[in-house]
Amino acid sequence: MRLSVVPLLSFAVFRPANAHYLFGRLILDGKWTKTWEYIREVSPAEGMSQDLALVAPNTNPYSPDLRCGRNASVSWSPVKAATIRAGDTVGFAAGEPMLQGDRRPWMYHPGYASAWLSKSPTDDLNSYTGDGDWFKILIVTGRTERSLDFTHPDMALYDKLKAVWGTYRADSWNFTIPRATPPGKYLLRFEHIFPNKVDAQFYVNCAHVDIVNDRDDVGNPGPVVKIPGVYKQGQPDVYFSTYDFDFNITTFVPPEPAVWSG
Ligand SMILES: *[C@@H]1O[C@H](CO)[C@@H](O)[C@H](O)[C@H]1NC(C)=O
Ligand SMILES: *[C@@H]1O[C@H](CO)[C@@H](O)[C@H](O)[C@H]1NC(C)=O
Ligand SMILES: *[C@@H]1O[C@H](CO)[C@@H](O)[C@H](O)[C@H]1NC(C)=O
Ligand SMILES: [Cu+2]
């Protein structure tokens, strides 16, 4: 990803004590849409300072908040459904709101990203709780050609152990809706996991999308899972330290399910 190096370097000097993020903006037709325009709004966490409350991650793999974020199992904000043709590219951006005092909204933590779809049983996406089947359409573990370039000498301040992750410090991620996705109204979910031995952090948000597909040979997406239900507290591919001496991104296998590529 091409980005000028100078501003990134100046960001690196001021390290906040804490940094969280959320994905409030959908990237549609190559444009960053407005915060909560296509994404279900989430509620602030209780008992936290205002700057942290909205961006605080979920750390409970069994909470219904694992689906679409805090208090977002139904939509209570005016969310538009984005019309997307199967085979087209969309993205999620770690846009505003952001942690006050943070340098910019981005995937601050090392970890892996994924995208998921769940078809609504009715046309009313607002009332779909996401309790149906989910399938995975993207996983990003190690670096890709879209990852930030940390090899540049000016980026030496960045932690090499973190920069092995493809999404590290990226402000967004784009991916394709599989060509064979059956048409219909879906929740499109983005997830970024910061693995951790005791309290892995789950950053999740859901967009409302209307997938258009006029092929007559649409596929049968799978494997499918329920969310929550997909992760268990303590499972080794979520609850581990990315800084362990013997951690190797090349051989790291992300959690199931496998990606359905259509
Ligand atoms: C995703 O696409 C948007 C719009 O084209 C672009 O601004 C952004 O840089 C892309 N993100 C990455 C990580 O490539
Ligand atoms: C939580 O969601 C409900 C709808 O299910 C909504 O009425 C309520 O305002 C939300 N709570 C907060 C604190 O935003
Ligand atoms: C990581 O694993 C790959 C593939 O087995 C190997 O080539 C590489 O040397 C390993 N890296 C480290 C630092 O051990
Ligand atoms: Cu954080």
TrEMBL record:
One of its GO terms (biological process) is cellulose catabolic process. Keywords: Carbohydrate metabolism, Cellulose degradation, Copper, Disulfide bond, Hydrolase, Metal-binding, Monooxygenase, Oxidoreductase, Polysaccharide degradation, Secreted, Signal. It catalyses: [(1->4)-beta-D-glucosyl]n+m + reduced acceptor + O2 = 4-dehydro-beta-D-glucosyl-[(1->4)-beta-D-glucosyl]n-1 + [(1->4)-beta-D-glucosyl]m + acceptor + H2O. It comes from the Eukaryota. It is found in: Secreted. Its EC number is 1.14.99.56. Its cofactor is Cu(2+). Residues 1-19 form the signal peptide. Gene3D superfamilies: 2.70.50.70. Residues 20-244 form the Auxiliary Activity family 9 catalytic domain. Belongs to the polysaccharide monooxygenase AA9 family. This is lytic cellulose monooxygenase (C4-dehydrogenating). It comes from Apiosordaria backusii. The lineage of its organism: Eukaryota, Fungi, Dikarya, Ascomycota, Pezizomycotina.
